[in-house]
Amino acid sequence: MTTVMRRRSRRWPVVAAAAVVAAAAAFWMLENPPMDTVSPDPAPVGELTVVSGQRVFFGHQSVGAGIVAGLAQLSAGADPAPVLVETESVPPVGDGFFAHAYIGRNGDPLGKIDAFRRVIEGPLGARLDAAVLKFCYVDITADTDVQALFDAYAEAMAQLQAAHPHIRFVYTTVPLTTDRSFTAKLKAALGRDDQAGPRDNQARERYNALVRQRYGSTGALFDIAAVEATLSTHPAVRTDAADDYAVLNRALAADNGHLNELGAQLAAAELVRVLARG
Question: In this structure, are residues 240 and 232 in contact, taking their beta carbons and an 8 Å threshold?
Answer without folding.
Answer: no
